[in-house]
Specification:
It is built from seven helices and no strands. The longest helix is centred in the first third of the chain and has 22 residues. The protein is globular and about 40 Å long.
Length: about 150
């Protein structure tokens, strides 16, 4: 099975391919800050299915989440930090290569990216879709590298 480096590379490659296609088709044109956020989401999502194991991928994933939690707490977004923390615990419910390695989890796990900002911050669905698809793209890269399809 591929390790965390392969999953990060795969996530970056898939993200770059999807981004290139979207830019070429003129569907979406993110600014530089949004592009970096989308890439970060894709990379974290590429690691997510393996955070239920003792691995460097898990250390990187939760290390990044610690920074995100800190930023959210500094901004006073405690509810969002709590919900994100709840979601981050979900892989602990199950066994390795269990539900986190299914095609349906690839679509369900990123749903908080759509739902939370709509509920807490009154954001529109269309403004959130690029972030959701970045997550699905990273997740899909992991499943394809693990041959889970």
């Amino acid at each position: 099975m591929p390790g965390f480096k392969a999953h990060l590379f795969g996530g970056a490659l898939f993200f770059a391919l999807v981004l290139t296609t979207v830019l070429w088709l003129g569907i979406y044109q993110p600014d530089q800050q949004t592009l970096l956020l989308l890439a970060g989401i894709a990379l974290l999502s590429a690691l997510f299915p393996d955070v239920d194991t003792d691995s460097k991928g898990r250390v990187l994933f939760y290390g990044a989440l610690l920074l995100i939690y800190l930023a959210l707490m500094i901004q006073g977004r405690f509810r969002l930090a709590a919900v994100l923390g709840f979601c981050a615990l979900l892989p602990a419910v199950g066994h390795h290569r269990g539900w986190t390695h299914t095609w349906w989890a690839m679509f369900l796990v990123p749903l908080p990216i759509l739902i939370l900002p709509m509920v807490f911050y009154d954001r529109s669905l269309t403004s959130l879709l690029p972030f959701y698809f970045a997550s699905v793209t990273g997740y899909a890269s992991h499943l394809l590298l693990d041959r889970a399809f």
